[in-house]
Design brief:
Chain lengths: 331, 286
């Protein structure tokens, strides 16, 4: 079996996006039992600075195409280049990160290849299917996250899927595959460049969910912007980061970039403290892989208790100040 | 004058799923859910209307779905769309995004193409965000996704703001182009009373006797239905047959149920919880 992963650079830092590392390793673990090959494909102006990292995560080869015209997202050109890279390799599986870039290009490529694409998968595994041999099973939430569907592409190749950042994990132990970079040749056509970038403004991000062991999140139950101060205080007391449910973001308690869930960040900290969050499926989709979950909610039947490890049924405005007091004392 | 096509979908209101919309066996009771205009398709219709107000345009709204989906077409007329088309055929049922985009792209060709095609970023029943770009690929035209603002439009170019996740981009491009619009782009307008009066009788043809149809036609109240045969499409590329992806299994999401330790909401109990947090997660310094 042969698998391809789309390699993406963070345009702001010039480094690999985490999801490219996560998917390289995922593909490696998927294909290892079959002695399969893991190939990266990249198109852009410059290779990501830390490209060699990928070989420590199981990459066998990187196929790349460099052109200054591809500095910014030129979907039409990307589609043509990536499609011909994939055609030249005839892989069984192609994975994309479900980033704004991946979700832009993957559908174009799948359409050009006349094959299926399953978006935002949360689980991927290979298994036998009827007389089709080993195929990729792609699990994803659907229907607003209320059901979990397993999707297959039994007849077409490649089988394509996208996965959001943070869903798959990177191991601590590193492999030592040799670095193998192969330049791709293509007749570049100037007509493929359709977009003129008038300006690019980097988004300022103050949120560091990835590097936080502890995340304290507040929901609609927090009640007001002022009360949300308690959530922040608790996060700071624990040297963690604070997040929010969509309802809390909609009410203006917290910034949109702090939203956790299906349409926000996917996080998996060591400790997640959910305060005044009911635990709707869309929220759980972004946090249920946390190692430990604490729920504070005044409704004993709130679904969040269904996935929590520790819980308090109570009002956050009364419990959090007490909790803060003891955290300070005990330290 | 620019020709604009808006792709719109009627979707179950997945945001409001409650206990009784889930059946005993854990599947979704679609019938119990209200069907609504996919929210981000309203944002894209609003973009179309704003372009029309600025430089003049003819707006056609296309939806593929069951006859009931005509509801969102009427809503589009109430908001200011010029033409609407229902694309409906039993053979289209079960289509994945590839089969859907194939049919939609053929419909667009059939009605004479477009300068600007607008789609929602994603539909809330599947959240795939694939149909828009795939329609563009089928038509071999440029596409730009995640549009968070319409900046400027002239006769030969359009400038948009794109939410590039780590950066905000201002992009200028020519026509034809397909854009997918996010909910940040605008506030969709309300239906217009006069337009409601003008169009409230509009309907697809199947519901009426011959003489009524004639009268409807005279008044321009017939909403055209486009079928597979009208387009001369191969069965193999439509509906379930034309869909490379198949749903293998579906299960409702049940909570795993961890070993849950409950603490009371009184100081003694909260102190115990604080101690447990400190023991496991806080590095005690000094
Ligand atoms: C397509 C789609 C995508 C979505 N994506 C996301 C997403 O990414 N992230 C997300 O979070 N949501 C998302 N949602 C929304 C989601 O369905 C829920 O509406 C949302 O998570 C609810 O937020 P909440 O738990 O804060 O609010 P609620 O559901 O209103 O819950 C508030 C909770 O607070 C408790 N409470 C009230 N007062 C107090 C108090 N004083 N002390 C303690 N507890 C109190 C209540 O008992 C209740 O359980 C999405 C929805 C859709 C349709
Ligand atoms: N059946 C359909 N009819 C018309 N437009 C559709 C249909 N399905 C999807 N679309 C368009 O494609 C967008 C993305 O849909 P999806 O790929 O399902 O998330 C929607 O917001 C619509 O604009």
């Amino acid at each position: 079996m042969k698998g391809i992963v789309f390699i993406e650079k963070n345009p702001a830092t010039g480094d690999l996006r985490n999801v490219s590392k996560e998917l390289t390793y995922k593909l490696y673990t998927l294909l290892q039992p079959y002695k399969g090959e893991v190939i990266g494909i990249f198109a852009g102006d410059e290779l990501p600075k830390d490209i060699n990292e990928l070989f420590k995560l199981g990459l066998n080869r990187l196929i790349y195409y460099k052109n200054d015209r591809l500095k910014n997202l030129q979907s039409f050109a990307y589609k043509n280049i990536l499609t011909s890279m994939i055609k030249s390799e005839e892989p069984d599986i192609v994975l994309f990160g479900a980033t704004h870039t991946g979700r832009d290009i993957a559908p174009l490529v799948s359409s050009a290849l006349h094959t299926g694409l399953t978006a935002d998968c949360t689980q991927l595994y290979i298994d036998e299917y009827k007389d089709k041999g080993n195929i990729l099973f792609q699990r994803r939430p659907a229907f607003g996250g209320n059901i979990l569907a397993t999707i297959i592409t039994p007849d077409e190749r490649p089988m394509m899927a996208s996965v959001r950042e943070g869903v798959m994990q990177i191991p601590e132990k590193k492999l030592d595959n040799p670095v193998k970079l192969e330049e791709f040749k293509i007749d570049f056509n100037e007509n493929w460049i359709k977009n003129e970038f008038l300006s690019i403004v980097e988004k300022e991000s103050k949120v560091h969910f990835n590097s936080s062991d502890i995340i304290v999140a507040g929901g609609a139950g927090v009640g007001s912007v002022d009360n949300f101060g308690l959530i922040k205080k608790l996060a700071w007391a624990l040297k963690g980061e604070y997040g929010a449910s969509r309802a809390a973001v909609d009410f203006g308690f917290a910034e949109k970039e702090r939203q956790i869930g299906q349409t926000g960040h996917v996080v998996r900290p060591k400790l997640y403290i959910a305060c005044g969050i009911s635990g709707a499926v869309q929220h759980r989709a972004g946090m249920e892989e946390s190692q430990k979950i604490i729920a504070i909610n005044k409704d004993p039947d709130a679904p969040i208790f269904g996935i929590a490890h520790m819980g308090i049924v109570g009002d956050i405005n009364e419990t959090i100040p007490i909790l803060l007091k003891y955290l300070k004392e005990e330290k | 004058m620019k020709k604009i096509v808006v792709l719109a979908k009627q979707v179950p209101d997945t945001a409001n799923i409650t206990g009784n919309t889930m059946k005993e066996d854990g599947t979704v009771n679609r019938g119990a859910l209200p069907a609504i205009f996919n929210p981000e398709d309203l944002n894209s219709l609003e973009v179309a209307l704003q372009i029309k107000e600025k430089i003049g345009a003819e707006i056609s709204v296309i939806t593929m779905g069951p006859p009931k989906a005509v509801e969102i077409l009427k809503q589009s007329l109430y908001m200011g769309a010029d033409k609407v088309y229902l694309v409906s055929d039993r053979k289209f049922a079960g289509a994945d995004t590839l089969a859907t985009s194939y049919v939609l792209s053929e419909v667009i060709k059939n009605i004479g193409g477009a300068d600007i095609i607008l789609a929602g970023r994603q539909a809330i029943d599947g959240d795939t965000a694939q149909v828009g770009p795939q329609v563009a690929e089928k038509l071999d035209i440029n596409s730009i996704t995640y549009i968070s603002k319409l900046k400027n439009i002239t006769d030969d170019s359009i400038t948009v703001e794109r939410d590039g996740e780590v950066q905000t981009e201002q992009i200028k491009t020519g026509f034809p182009v397909l854009l997918t619009i996010t909910s940040d782009a605008n506030e969709p307008r309300y239906p217009d009373c006069r337009l409601m009066l003008k169009h409230f009788r509009s309907s697809i043809e199947i519901n009426f006797e011959e003489h009524k149809v004639e009268k409807m036609q005279e008044n321009g109240w017939i909403i055209p239905t486009i079928t597979r045969e009208d387009l001369g499409l191969e069965i193999e590329r439509c509906g379930l047959k034309g869909s490379p992806t198949k749903v293998h299994k579906i299960k409702s999401i049940k909570l795993a149920g961890n070993n849950l330790t409950m603490y009371g909401d009184n100081p003694t109990e909260i102190k115990k919880m604080a101690q447990s947090i400190i023991k496991d997660y806080v590095e005690v310094s000094g």
